[in-house]
Amino acid sequence: MSVLETKRLKLRLITLDDGEFILELLNDPDFVRFVGDKGVRTIDDACRYILSGPKASYDRYGFGLWLVELQSPKLSIGICGLLKREPLEDADLGFAFLPRFRSCGYARESASAVLQHGREVLGLKRIVAITDRDNAGSIRVLEKLGMSFERMIRMSPDQPEIELHASEVTVDHEDRCA
Fold first, then answer.
1. Do residues 81 and 63 touch, judged by C-beta distance below 8 A?
2. What is the mean pLDDT of the chain?
3. Separation of first and last alpha carbons in the chain
4. Strand ranges (DSSP E) for 6-83?
5. What's the CATH number of domain 2-167, 3.30.530.20, 3.40.1390.10, 3.40.630.30, 3.40.190.10?
6. Residue 67 and residue 11: Cα distance in Å, rounded?
7. I want to staple 147 with a disulfide (CB 3.0 to 4.6 A). Which of 85, 109, 163, 165 is the partner?
8. CA distance 18 to 22
9. Taking a C-beta distance cutoff of 8 angstroms, is the pair 7, 178 a contact?
10. Which of 87, 92, 82 is nearest to 129 (CA)?
């Protein structure tokens, strides 16, 4: 079921049928480095992650991370959506893409649609994003979306500081890859 569509992308609910894709994405070295090791090593682990993460978020909040697919050819390339993390007061924009689909404008295009959906459909007044200070690619995407650095935060006392960015929605799709 499609949640959002853009010129090149379709964002839809993640289902158990997406286990193989989730297994690949969550074990990408950059995902592990910048987002974290989710301990997903098998298809069964991926299915548990889907049920306890995205599916639980859909049920509880009415939003979550959505699967990002190319419109044509139909191909899963990443995830993008809104999260509600306990330490954060506001909904948090999150995205991750397989390496071969980075630097094509897909993160910006999908995140822009998610921000617009959050404001117009979900009625969110403020949306934030968190990122590792060394994740230059994500920081560039956030800046292009009009999100600005606000402060350094810790999600828990034992975790390192990360950047918190905040947004007023701007919608601007830029095609870089055909």
1. yes
2. 92
3. 25
4. 9-13, 65-70, 75-83
5. 3.40.630.30
6. 5
7. 165
8. 6
9. no
10. 92
